[in-house]
Amino acid sequence: MIYYFHSIVIAVLLWTIPAGANTRYHPCLDAPLLGPGSSANNDHEITVESERELVRAVNNAQPNTTIFIKPGRYELSTTLSVTQENITIRGASDDCSSVELIGAGMDNSDHGGVEHGFWIEAKNTTIANMTISELYLHPISVSGSSRGTRIFNVRMVNAGQQFVKVNPIEYGVGVDDGSVEYSIMQYTDSPPTISRYDAGSGYTNGVDIHAGKDWKISNNVFMNFHTPDTADHLWNAAVLVWNGASDTITENNVFINIDRAIAYGLTKRSHDHKGGVIRNNMIVMTRGLYSKNRSREADASILIWDSPGTVVVHNTILTNENIPYSIEVRFNNSGIDISNNVSDAPMGIAKSQTVRSTCADFISCRKNFISINKDKNEMNADLNWFISPESGDLRLKSSYASKIKKVALHTLALKDIDGTMRQAFTAPGADAVSID
Question: pTM to 2 decimals?
């Protein structure tokens, strides 16, 4: 359903905020109406209008139940634990701002036991049409015994650790067949700086999937995943899929001011991730986001670290000289295809398998890498090429569209970020603007 995404990017650009809305929150995305999904054959429907009713409904839900939450603010007194199959919990309205589930604050250690918004340990759970904010740990946590989790049109704001945490059973065995779509993951200022449970400060990700197979992460917005230089964790990916995961699709997302956007794999194993596609994403960093010291130690926006068989195609990346590379490959790189991307920084394969040592500057960093597919990727993009980079819109201006190189159509990216069909020879990057 890629064709809906044009309105999503417009929502990024045009902050039309209704009177009385929380102006610190990113506006809800223009998501399509929620389809039946796991609730297609549900036997029971429950409507709640208070936090107490919501807790009771979730605790007592029978399999095949849809719980509708009436518009309002719900201050959570406990984590909502889903343990029955085929449960849908959704706002009664399709507007994600109409229902807000609120924790005690992401940095509030006196959270009253409300560390998570949802704890899911069941098959075919859908969470949709709501805002979840100010949780000490995770807005949504999914256990390894689950399957088919669907997160749709959910705005998540200010999480103490990962926004969506998908836990493993063991290496390569975890939650399969999940999706995160048309959702927002955002810090209103920056990630938390205090450590919790000895995890270290700055320990955060947007979607963190351990060991899961066949996840789809599409049509989302990730904002302000940039930890301060004083944090223990400096290089958190907004999308991190690893620990034996495989066949992930990450497409049509917008990333604004993130330390790393997407990581398939992170450490050297037999494989930390395998296969999958990264396509039609727009990634932008504000100039000067990184200090000079941070830039010297940085790597790339997209990491393919020990993820053989992965395809990275038609992404647009504007680093604005914060980091030396746009896309970086390390460890097992067999069968990797990196084609038709646009960036303002090189793409490279690490010459050695060791972790990057501190570089004196960008030039010395780049000496450690072998360039990738110069003929298939545009690596000299300029800020002026794009319509509104400060807002995340990295579509090409019409005045530059005719000057950019043409690339051959890739079979795994027939449509662009707007759902427009690409021509046989097309512009690289997320936007299939006509270049004839």
Answer: 0.91
